[in-house]
Amino acid sequence: MVWNRSHLLDIESLSSEEILTVLDTARAFKAVGERVIKKVPALRGKTVVNLFIEPSTRTRISFELAAQRLTADVINFSAEASSLKKGETLKDTARNLEALNADIIVIRHSASGAAHFLSRFLKASVINAGDGAHEHPTQALLDAFTIREMKGKIEGLNVTILGDILYSRVARSNIWAMTKLGANVTLCGPSTLVPKVFEKMGCRVTYNVNEAIENADIINLLRIQHERQRKTMFPSLNEYTSLFGLTQARLSQLKPDALIMHPGPINRGVEIDSDIADSKRSMILSQVTNGLAVRMAVLFLINGGQGPHGVAA
Ligand code: CP
User: Fold this and answer.
1) Ligand 1 within 6 A of CB of 56
2) Are 198 and 179 in contact (CB under 8 A)?
3) 96 partner at 20 to 30 Å CA-CA among 34, 202, 235, 296?
């Protein structure tokens, strides 16, 4: 299919064909990353600004490396050292970056809708690198890429997302991506963090962790988003671990080929046992590796690339 979007703001508005175009293009870029010379000139002469107003390790660094691999000029905006600290607005900040010829702005912000907001007045392309509890589209794309790479398909798989769903942008983007690609999605966690209203997105909601994990092909664990919770949503972390954590005892209930995923950062000993996080069944670092290829694909497509066939040129 022909890709004709100049922004990537969410997964909700993407078709399954568009999602698959990103995944196919990312597969071609992963092959590029296995060559001796890992760079291609697709974004030569373009400027990519990483406008991260919230902390990030994986997303910011992989967008930076992805832009470098595509031969773009890359600016990493530091919120702490910027005039945001003097009261300059996000809109004025972004318009100043555009005045300096930014072609693509990758934004992470604590406010839901921040990326959509920028896209309404900028000529530059906008990529959402996580906006509040709304969406984190490239995380869902790299998760889908990892699942397809490991399982050969997504359609028909049972995907369980376990943890703090309510405050998670990763959960929302994954629910959209997995349901659009034909997976059966189950959500599980404390009832305060997994409201039944999520069933309207086409998921099953259960508070019984055994039921949630026993037939799962994929367990995607989420951390507790303390930074977004405004009140205590469960009694204690110890209680959370005993009721919903992926412990060694629960590991033995999984299908032998079930994969364990987590977007990171992980809280060892809370949502996941430390040894499980480091085990062969854990996809956590593969997800990070695949994030580079997926973000190269997104930058390439947003800049006018037309899918996997144009990658090698
Ligand atoms: N998964 C993820 O978004 O991690 P970072 O916050 O480190 O970017």
Assistant:
1) yes
2) no
3) 296
Indicate if ligand 1 lies below 6 Å from the C-beta of 59: yes
CB distance 212 to 169 below 8 Å? no
Q: Ligand 1: which of 53, 57, 106, 290 to mutate, most ligand atoms within 8 Å of CB?
A: 57
- Predicted confidence (pLDDT) per residue in 168-197, tens digit: 999 999 999 999 999 999 999 999 999 999
Rounded mean pLDDT of the chain?
95
To test the ligand 1 pocket, which listed residue (53, 54, 58) has its Cβ within 8 A of the most ligand atoms? Answer: 58
Confirm or reject: Cβ of 291 under 6 Å from ligand 1. no
Q: Quickly state the pLDDT bin for 281 (edges 50, 70, 90).
A: very high
What are the percentages of helix, strand and coil residues in the chain, rounded to 5? 40, 15, 45
139 lines ligand 1 (CB under 6 A): yes
Q: Is 58 in the pocket of ligand 1 (CB under 6 A)?
A: yes
Which residues neighbour 281 within 8 Å (Cβ) at sequence distance 6 or greater?
258, 259, 260
Residue 81 has pLDDT above 90, yes or no: yes
pLDDT at 2: 81
Give the nearest ligand 1 atom to 264 CA. 1
Mean pLDDT of 223-244: 80
Task: Tell how strand 73-78 and strand 125-131 pair up.
Answer: unpaired
User: Across 58-170, where does the E strand assignment appear?
Assistant: 73-78, 104-109, 125-131, 158-162
